[in-house]
């Protein structure tokens, strides 16, 4: 048996962002426990300013191995964490996983001096790697890993879990989480802090949006309806959770399955609340879907629209049908679901007029709230390739300040820097600073007590001068 510390870094300056439970680590923790190991999860949201709890844990608990799961916005803190680990326990093997390492395994090993990278889904791979390390067996050919071999990074492609394997996984190790931590920090659903639990009912997305990572791949794989409902029932009746955030890539891709899950929730878990932070493909939703979502307890849903321009939709390879998007949003609002729209301004080749048209669309929609972002060309995505000619300094996409959604000033569009700044100022005034928008948020927000913190964060963002790189 090995003691394995699983670490979730966070974006420095946590007050700017929202988090959810590290579901990948809870699944890893469950498979490690099943294999006879002793895992411990440390979420750096607990001590992100100085990592004092993490330092004490490493010193006192003395793990045999460390696993770190990161996304790109957590690179800055990850460097600090690696420095701490190497100083206190220099001989302990460190394995990286998550979207950033999976997309950039060679860069991960070279930059962070990681011993191993688990590529993609790690529930079956990581225990196999640990077993090989403990037994002194070769580790350089394990499928789904990367490591240094003869001075070079060797990458061994892995395979995605099948639907049968997904159903065979143990339920996440919820007991390894600090539930009080997640109850007080804003979550992915953006309706404030409160007790809740995240759930993953499927993996993978068949769409090819240029700005998106492909950690779970482009093959949609679904857990059985029975497995999903059993997990929710255990969380409800054993742990007492009444709110759930569904965090799939595309929950509604299989409409028949969606209906079976929602009907089961309605009939077997009638007192729960559901939130869909970003996992509903908007233009394949029908009006009757919204009615069932509401019957199943849906309180809020977010719709990733990005742009109202058909040309830009084709360019970013999202290809949303905007007319159907409007119908779906209206149906959600009519059903009493608090609806948020996500938009991006500044895609490669996007003009000032196209950007303004998107703002007009968002402002005139029935959405309760609109969130506007600057598209970030994360390394390993199609958007990074599209932006390559625009960015004079390619290293900017590795700068933590440039890849933070709330502080990024990268201008990869066809707009001049002056137009780029102007379009955001126009958007802020129309979307955030007019009484009608503010009243709409206040009247329909599902967690009114969280609004003061949300408005403080918004003011901080609006006060920041938006300069292009």
Feature tags:
disordered C terminus; 469 residues; pyruvate-formate lyase- activating enzyme; alpha/beta; single chain; Rossmann fold; 2 domains; 15 strands; seven-stranded mixed beta sheet; 18 helices
How many β-strands, per DSSP? 15
Number of helices: 18
**How many structural domains?**
2
**Helix-strand category:** alpha/beta
Could you say what the CATH topology of the largest domain is called? pyruvate-formate lyase- activating enzyme
For the record, give the distance between the C-alpha atoms at the N and C termini, rounded to a whole number: 50 Å
**Annotated CATH architecture of the largest domain:** Alpha-Beta Horseshoe
Shape type: globular
> C-alpha Rg, in Å?
22 Å
Low-pLDDT stretches are 465-469
Describe the protein's architecture and organization.
Helix 11 (287-295) packs parallel to helix 13 (322-334). Strand 12 (273-276), helix 11 and strand 13 (298-306) form a beta-alpha-beta unit. The protein is an alpha/beta fold. It folds into 2 domains: 3-156, Rossmann fold; 186-463, pyruvate-formate lyase- activating enzyme (Alpha-Beta Horseshoe). It is built from 18 helices and 15 strands. The radius of gyration is 22 Å and the shape is globular. A 7-stranded mixed sheet has the order 2-1-3-4-5-6-7, with helices on both faces. A 6-stranded parallel sheet has the order 8-11-12-13-14-15.
